[in-house]
Design brief:
By secondary structure, the protein is α+β, with helices and mostly antiparallel strands. The protein has seven helices and 14 strands. The chain is about 25% helix and about 25% strand.
Length: about 290
């Protein structure tokens, strides 16, 4: 979706976020160390080779005998795997792929363009001791774009490394509207890196309005290195008048900002979506 289809960009102005306009956070990894009831990772399904602590001595390359600590579930389709690695290639400059076992691999670490900070995050995760399982959570109302939860091993838990499940709702991204530059800064690749930042560096999301928070500050470094606008807020807000009238839609928006290097003037870009389709609204709002 181009910005011409929905002209939302504007010069940065003082736009206070009124409490009445507050819609809520994007549901992401707010408590990455929290155990989630009912979430178990079976050592017998697709990750049976993790029989002990995962230790990777160097950046795993395709063909390496070591197993990647980042692995996708079987139900994550080939098309969506390719969608994710395509965005990661653009953001990181790495040549990345999923191998035949579903493990994320870096096949070339040359790093052509992209973000060095993002490359460092991927490399740290691939060389780390934490197992990260990717799961397709499309069309789930409890997952808004993405979320990370702690996992428990079903067997031999005491001998297993820490494990986490990154839930990605690929379908949510189909509902995005907004400015071209903002859409480039908010896609499935950035969602994955946000959750990976939670796991690898244990960065926290903010609880305050009008700021991106610790985790998004790190992701904004990557966006800056890619020449993209920065996320201004962690919490989304309602589009003006979205709560009024009899319409069933409830459009919300996220702000992104970028300064012109020549004029030093700031420009604001928007990403929007219908929260009744994507989810995340409080029940009393969604029911209206």
């Amino acid at each position: 979706m181009t910005s011409s289809a929905l002209p939302l960009s504007a010069e940065v102005a003082n736009e206070p976020t009124h409490p009445a306009d507050f819609a809520g956070p994007i549901i992401e990894g707010d408590e990455v160390r929290r155990k989630t009831q009912g979430r178990v990772v079976s050592a017998l399904i697709r990750i049976s080779f993790f029989c002990g602590t995962v230790v990777v001595c160097q950046l795993p390359l395709l063909g390496s005998e070591s197993h990647s600590p980042i692995i996708c579930r079987e139900q994550l389709s080939v098309a969506r795997r390719e969608m994710l690695v395509d965005r990661l290639r653009t953001i990181t400059g790495f040549e990345v792929t999923f191998d035949e076992n579903g493990g994320l691999r870096v096949t070339s670490a040359a790093g052509r363009g992209g973000s060095q900070t993002a490359r460092n995050l991927i490399a740290t995760a691939l060389n780390g001791k934490k197992v990260i399982v990717l799961e397709d959570a499309s069309d789930r109302q409890d997952v808004v774009f993405s979320r990370v939860v702690s996992a428990e091993w079903k067997h031999h838990a005491s001998n297993m490394p820490p494990a986490f499940v990154v839930l990605i709702d690929f379908a949510d991204f189909d509902h995005l509207l907004g400015d071209r530059e903002a859409l480039k800064a908010f896609d499935v690749g950035w969602a994955f890196l946000h959750e990976l930042e939670h796991v690898v560096n244990e960065s926290a999301d903010t609880q305050e309005a009008n700021q991106p928070g610790e985790c998004e500050d790190h992701i904004n470094l990557m966006r800056n290195e890619c020449g993209l606008p920065l996320r201004a807020d962690y919490f989304y807000t309602f589009v003006p008048y979205a709560q009024r009238g009899t319409f069933r839609t409830r459009f919300v928006r996220l702000a992104f900002e970028q300064k012109n290097a020549t004029t030093n003037k700031g420009r604001r870009y928007w990403v929007m979506w219908d929260a009744t389709l994507v989810g995340g609204l409080a029940p009393e709002i969604a029911a209206k």
